[in-house]
Write a structure and sequence with these properties.
Largest sheet of chain A: 7 strands, antiparallel
Oligomer: homodimer
Number of domains of chain A: 3
Helix content of chain A: 25-40%
CATH class of the largest domain in chain A: Mainly Alpha
Distance between the termini of chain A: 31 Å
Radius of gyration of chain A: 25 Å
Structural class of chain A: alpha+beta
CATH topology of the largest domain in chain A: Glycosyltransferase
Number of helices of chain A: 17
CATH architecture of the largest domain in chain A: Alpha/alpha barrel
């Protein structure tokens, strides 16, 4: 199956989608709690002391990393504080759509003023290199996140301008990008470089779309095209800087996906977030330029990631050592890194793969990552965070109030805040519904003003009702995703049964009609609990099964089931009953019959020839993304499969 | 069940047991190959440069360890080179009984001459503190292995004197111990200390038994009694030496079993080898002094170790961080530390628990540790070694030619070389056969000279035949262990069936008769393959089974079965067939019907609702101790249990 490439679908803007139900509650948490926490923690970390030119240049707060192969004094996470502030601004911008917060907005405006004052006459604007290491700018793109910080500031500027109408940061960043465009490029006297941490590529696409500046888009394409070519920029840069290129902590340029030109890459490697941001930028450029060479490479990478390197939750990047990928089917559960940011990044990439048309391969995975691997990173009340997202815990893994590398809290906050933009795609005469959820979206299609309202308590209930509001009748195609997990869907249009067969290979029902105001569509997506089997080569999961319902991965948690979860075995989920859990926001829990191999009848011996006795019991499973919101304890996704399953 | 305490059984001396069959081959490998390798590697490491006073004081070869909490410059493994040399001397001494090697003996004699010249006028004799850090002796017993080195030198001295009749090293060590006895003790002006790494306790018992010196035995008892008492010696010592006692890399005195007085210890904790050596010394002292308070403590510790903290192989100490114990039932397979030395130490302890009479709890575990966790540490040809002994390998674990901390090679060599001493226990009117194996043992019992000959190809064949040789008829009890694994044994005396019921709780058949020259006993020990189930609380083994036959744990290895061993599931071993494997010394392999969950019929999805297809196959299992003697590959002991097992 290859991607649809004949259409150009763009997401609605954030302002055009109002969320209710499940996502409404989550956005309220972000707007009421998370964004203020993000700001406060940035302040508490001392970040503004670094940014504000009117304050004395502060002492180093986070020491330079000293590790094997790292030259002492090269890198500190403090170098990318601009990105933490930027994501905080971006998340706050999205929160503004939900709830104005003049006090917080004033604080953000003050931060933006600092950046305006920080900006150098030539446009350069990075707090680390202006204030902490002046004279060192553009000397180590490989390690020091300089263009990455610019990228996040660009995203923040676009979002804040859209949300508040205030363009001050946008203007600052345009001037900065104008400067960057003089420094980097293929021309004489320019640096043919790119960032060790991808991000600016996708940010420049956003900036270009916001400003209409094609040169920004071209700069994004330049960074993507230059990546991994020979002579290798990071080698040359190191030599220029008096460093040995081999003196690289991560040893291989696979770490930052610069080991090969991007169109020649066939395997998802290295740091997971970097990979996702690169592929997101590639997908944007592929859509903008109709570049099939990029789409071909992305298809191969997509299959590698989702077919061989992805957790059931849409978590990716199993290893802490490189915060990234290792080998096919290496997906350990209890030590999973599976950074929240990486699942957010997977959602970014998947969303952009939908830019060329509806395809449930991408939307199903986007839904998987959003509802499971990503959303787990934010507590129910929006106040605490996961950085790593293991699929099993012996009881020692708990949410953080903050992290020394605080990338994940604002990243999950900005994803939740912007969730409406992931739900839809709009083309000239088509609307695609990628994600379901109570919401009202305003879009223009076939020249008409469409208000599309979803009702139905998704993801808890099985029927999604879509109501069409139109200022005048219009002929367009409504693409409705039938998730692979749903099996056979049911469909009614204006109360009448209609075949619910997906069109071609897309996995979307394509309803092309003359639509009128008040039309309604009811989509029934069966949501019985289902037993999931892992690929036999996933060593960590062999002989195990997991439970899903709808888009949600379920887990057993100590709070419901006590300790020693791995004594449980499961053969089927036919006997599952559902229950709403008030303290988890009314989430649907599954109560499942299981067998427990207890040690009750076990003698003194540690090893015997007598098999353990099993007793039957019922164990409660809750949505994975809601774990660790109650009393701390164990957690288990992959349960041992009982005989005969 | 409590230990028998009413008898005193001592092992035969090495010279009194000649081995054939299985152990004969292993001892030949040690005598022909291993002991020379040990000597050569000690020389190559530069150890003799440190010992020989006629050479210049060498530079440091192994840097001081610098770790969190360790003061730089406190510890290097080079501090315990004396122990590596000592174990090499001891192993060589045992090899001498098998095969004289005048050339190697001359080299060892030269080393002994070095120690004689190294010895100080006051008797002190430790190469590190005489040559490398003069003036620092007895300043850091906690970390620096000073008395530990003395202990190994004592064992070497006793063994070498017994094997060769040369008493030079024994005299050196007696003078050293005389000096130690002036330094340490409860008296005025003496240090109430003991070593951070136990060993000298059991060594002093050996020295006392060899020399008849009761004061050596009393010194051993002093070290045991002083351990862990308050005020804590290691605190006081640190203060005297200007160190902060809290500045201890391993944080807790549990690491060296000095957290409590030994009689108050209830849980096996800390560094595994240290624990085993301590308990061995305690068992010796319990037997020598009839000290039930020690035996009571040892019983509790024994149950904790063998009931909650021991691998199926008799491997112990799962963690690399402390080379030791963690928590009950924490027995990970692929990351198991399970140091060869620790299983050797468990055999030492178990053997000493038999000093108060036959009890198969101890002998069964001794056999388990010797044949599996310990013997795995030595390659079939005696030339390469395992330090860690995991019960599962993905293909990356292989034998070493040497190790930076080369404790295991000489330790397994000295265990194999002295294996005859573990096989029997002799009391005034009783002989206990603890281990079976082709051998001829000469013992004195009831005033008669007994020659006990075992035949029968143990551990491969089921029937052990014991032939009694006597210089005159004698009445004594022959205790024959019926291993727990054998279930119901069969017994014939002089060809006539005799009840094979173990006496009381001992697990040993007690044959009290008037024995005459030429009497024969045939013991039949059923050896069908059996499926072993782990305690349900061993998290790493849940839902898994292992295969044993006789005393041997079996494993599947890549060399026979290819990769992806964990795709295999097993329900029973009834269909097992046996085969002798010539390239593994004629070992009995088990060919077992299994199910394989292959990915042959698996689609592109990484997760699906369709269970994997299983096909039937036959997989070969070999004795665990023989793994990694052929082509490198995966290895697996605990196999997934198929449904219904």
């Amino acid at each position: 199956m290859s991607s649809p490439r004949n259409q150009s679908f763009r997401p609605p803007s954030i302002a055009d989608v109002d969320l209710g139900g499940f996502w409404g509650d989550r956005i309220d948490a972000v707007a009421n709690k998370t964004v203020r926490i993000l700001y406060d923690r940035c302040v508490a970390a001392g970040m503004l002391d670094q940014v504000d030119p009117s304050r004395p240049v502060p002492d180093l707060r986070i020491p330079f990393m000293v590790k094997d192969g790292f030259t002492a004094g090269t890198v500190t996470t403090q170098m990318f504080w601009d990105s933490d502030i930027a994501k905080t601004i971006e998340a706050t911008a999205y929160a503004v759509y939900r709830k104005r917060d003049p006090e917080l907005e004033a604080l953000i405006d003050a931060v933006i003023d600092m950046y305006a004052r920080l900006q150098q006459p030539d446009g350069y604007c990075n707090s680390w290199y202006v204030r902490m290491q002046p004279g060192r700018r553009w000397t180590n793109l490989r390690d020091c996140h300089e263009l990455y910080c610019a990228g996040h500031m660009i995203e923040a500027a676009v979002a804040y301008a859209q949300a508040t109408g205030k363009r001050k940061l946008l203007d600052v960043m345009c001037r900065y990008v104008d400067h960057i465009a003089t420094v980097f490029g293929p021309g004489e006297g320019q640096l043919p470089g790119y960032c060790g941490h991808e991000e600016i590529e996708l940010a420049l696409v956003r900036l270009s779309r916001e400003t209409g500046r094609q040169d920004y888009m071209d700069l994004a394409k330049f960074f993507i095209d230059a990546r991994g070519t020979q002579p290798h920029y990071f080698d040359e840069e190191a030599h220029r800087d008096g460093r040995n290129p081999k003196d690289f902590h991560f040893r291989t340029y696979e770490y930052n996906q610069s080991h090969l030109p991007v169109r020649e890459q066939r395997t998802v490697v290295g740091h997971a977030v970097r990979a996702m941001y690169l592929y997101s930028g590639m997908a944007d450029i592929a859509a903008e330029y109709g570049d099939d060479t990029l789409t071909d490479a992305l298809e191969i990478l997509w299959d590698d990631l989702t077919g061989r390197q992805m957790y059931l939750t849409g978590g990716i990047g199993p290893a802490a050592s490189n915060e990234g990928f290792t080998a096919a089917y290496d997906l350990p559960n209890d030590t999973a890194y599976a950074e929240t940011c990486a699942s957010v990044g997977l959602a970014f990439w998947a969303a952009r793969m939908l830019g060329r048309g509806p395809d449930r391969r991408f939307a199903d995975t986007m839904e998987r990552a959003i509802y499971n691997g990503a959303l787990a990173g934010l507590s129910q009340d929006g106040s605490t965070f996961f950085y790593e997202n293991p699929l099993e815990s012996r009881g020692g893994h708990h949410r953080w109030e903050w992290h020394h590398c605080p990338c994940c809290p604002p990243n999950i906050a900005r994803m939740v805040g912007a969730i409406g933009t992931y739900m839809y795609g709009v083309a000239d005469t088509a609307v695609a519904v990628h994600l379901y959820g109570e919401s009202t979206a305003r879009m223009t299609v076939a020249g008409a003003a469409l208000t599309l309202t979803q009702a139905g308590d998704y993801p808890w209930a099985e029927t999604v009702t879509l109501t069409i509001g139109l200022d005048r009748p219009a002929t367009f195609t409504l693409h409705l995703r039938v998730p692979d997990w749903a099996g056979k869907a049911g469909l009614k249009v204006n109360g009448t049964d209609v075949p619910a067969d997906p069109a071609g290979n897309t996995g979307y029902i394509a309803l092309t009609r003359d639509w009128a105001d008040g039309d309604s569509v009811a989509l029934h997506l069966p949501m019985q609990a289902r037993l999931i089997h892992p690929h036999p080569r996933i060593r960590a999961d062999t002989g195990r099964v997991a439970v899903m319902r709808g888009p949600l991965v379920y887990c057993a948690e100590g709070a419901d089931n006590g300790a020693d979860l791995d004594l449980m075995t499961m053969a089927a989920v036919d006997g599952a009953t559902t229950a709403r859990v008030p303290e988890l926001g009314g989430a649907v829990a599954l109560d499942l019959p299981v067998a427990l191999e207890t040690d009750a009848a076990w003698g003194k011996s540690i090893y015997t020839t007598t098999p353990p006795k099993a007793e039957t019991a019922v164990r409660r499973f809750i949505p994975y993304h809601l774990w660790d919101n109650r009393d701390p304890g164990e957690m288990l996704v992959w349960v041992r499969r009982a005989g005969g399953a």
